[in-house]
Amino acid sequence: MTSNYKLIIAYDGTRYFGWEHQPDKETIQGKLETVLARMCGKDTVDVIGAGRTDAGVHARAMVAHVLLDTEMTPDEIRDYMNRYLPDDIAVREVKKAGDRFHARYNALGKTYRYTLYVGDSKPVFDRKYMTVPDFVPALDAMCAAAEYLVGKHDFKSFCGNGRMKKSTVRTVDKIEIKRNKDTITITVHGNGFLQNMVRIIVGTLLEVGKGTYPPEHVQEILEAKDRRLAGPTAPAQGLCLMKVDYD
Amino acid sequence: MTSNYKLIIAYDGTRYFGWEHQPDKETIQGKLETVLARMCGKDTVDVIGAGRTDAGVHARAMVAHVLLDTEMTPDEIRDYMNRYLPDDIAVREVKKAGDRFHARYNALGKTYRYTLYVGDSKPVFDRKYMTVPDFVPALDAMCAAAEYLVGKHDFKSFCGNGRMKKSTVRTVDKIEIKRNKDTITITVHGNGFLQNMVRIIVGTLLEVGKGTYPPEHVQEILEAKDRRLAGPTAPAQGLCLMKVDYD
Question: Which ipTM did the prediction report?
């Protein structure tokens, strides 16, 4: 009997070409679909994720759904997948979901976190999950700049896809910037994100933190609706999808 | 002018043949000495560590000393080293030390930590710093077994070097076994450790945790002074040198 399952997946995106399957390239979706097809004795299985992460981006809790025809219990599916998936992809949870549960359409919000190392040394153990700027960014200026981005805005200046035809209006509820001992984390929550949006936000906040332009210039960047005015796209390796919200 | 410097070093030991330099092999000591020799324009520099970690073992705070003839400040030395060392070795701190400071002879104690993943999934982000047993060990039995090891004992049964000629008597002050959410950490503090000693202790505690023999059997293992009676040597990747104590 075919049932709909909700999966929660963690991955170290370092060596992958992102979430979405691509011919002849290693992707997270591709790995998951291969293992599940084998498990069910099918040629193909479609795993639908809550979103697509870019090449090199990590996830602690990506959510996906998949229709499976199997007699196995959810825990047995999880254990089977973890046994056959590479050690940089883990299935944290498998649960039966209602037939109408759709990981992308039902997603209400997402939390991403970007981590910067700003200590005096180097981040040996977490080096693949942080980026190391070559200056110490001014936190207060970054926080002030972030306030201009919170709210419902046209984020066209923060969209990596120049040929985006659909609406580039999104709502960002919260940008929290915290200094821990040797790291700065930038946590962004919103109802949806454009391509590279979080990384361009981080790249722009870092320009402010470096003093390239003042916090209030971010308002002009937003209004210009021109990608060229925002900061560079921050490197993928510092970014991690932390959580996807559902009802 | 030549001064004596104390270094605190962190490393991910995964791809190294241990601390101690060996011809034609990548080692931590070898990497440090190469960078410092270059910095000082010398052919060789001797970096003396507090101890030797095995191939694949990690350190958060290995301590070493080195005599250097340089005009650079300690922070400049640290920054130079971090720039030229690979990204899996970091110098956390460089300080001038008294001429008589010796990282090995003056070390009063060491703390090692072994980490096991015992959750339902897989440890994606820390997978190189944990081992995953194929059973869930019984914590209470392991704690009871550990008590037999605390104190001053002849640890010959827990020594990986069968041809060890010197005394195999050591004092273990504390073995702390803690379950966090998905991990068990075994923290061992002692005045000195024999080759593979912590890993054989962990391997033996795991046999108790699996039920192969009861906690009190550890007393017999100690008394037998025979390596063959103790458990297997636990894999290197779960082990990390956490701290070295000095006066």
Answer: 0.90
Of B12, B123, B127, the CB nearest to A124: B12
Which residue of B11, B60, B121 is in closest CB contact with A82?
A: B121
pLDDT above 90 (res B77): yes
How does residue A74 score in pLDDT terms, banded at 50, 70 and 90? very high
What confidence tens digit (pLDDT) does each residue in A164-199 have?
889 999 999 999 999 999 999 999 999 999 999 999
**Largest interatomic CA distance in chain A:** 60
The Cα–Cα gap between B12 and A119 comes to 18
What sign has the CA pseudo-torsion A98, A104, A110, A114?
positive
A151 pLDDT above the threshold of 90: yes
User: Is the CB of B124 less than 8 angstroms away from the CB of A12?
Assistant: yes
Among residues 4-63 of chain A, which lie with CB inside 8 Å of chain B? Answer: 10-12, 58, 60
Return the percentage of chain A with pLDDT > 70, whole number: 100
Query: In the prediction, which pLDDT does A23 show?
Result: 87
What is the CATH class of A109-245? alpha beta
CB–CB of B124 and A88 under 8 A?
Answer: yes
Q: Where in chain A is the domain with CATH 3.30.70.660?
A: 109-245
Considering chain B, tell me which residue range(s) the CATH 3.30.70.580 domain(s) occupy.
2-97
Contact A125 B12 (CB under 8 A): yes
pLDDT tens across A75-117, in order? 999 999 999 999 999 999 999 999 999 999 999 999 999 999 9
CATH 3.30.70.580 fits B2-97, yes or no: yes
Judged by a CB distance cut-off of 8 A, whether residue B122 touches chain A is: yes
Return d(Cα A87, Cα B124) in angstroms, integer.
6
Kindly determine whether residue A120 and residue B75, on different chains, have CB atoms separated by under 8 Å: yes
Asked if B154 is an interface residue toward chain A (Cβ–Cβ < 8 A), one would say: no
Least Cα separation, residue A136 to chain B (angstroms): 15
Q: Say which of A85, A124, A126 has its CB closest to residue B11.
A: A124
- Token pair for B148: 């037999």
Q: Which residues of A touch B10 (CB under 8 A)?
A: 121, 124-125
**Do B90 and A121 contact (CB within 8 A), yes or no?**
yes
The nearest alpha carbon in chain B to A91 belongs to: B121
Q: A66 - beta bridge partners?
A: A5, A47
Residue A164 has what pLDDT?
83
pLDDT of residue B165: 86
Among the listed residues B237, B82, B64, B19, the one whose alpha carbon sits nearest the alpha carbon of residue A127: B82
Instruction: Count CA atoms closer than 13 A to A128's CA, side-chain side.
Output: 19
If pLDDT is split at 50, 70 and 90, which confidence band does A162 have? confident
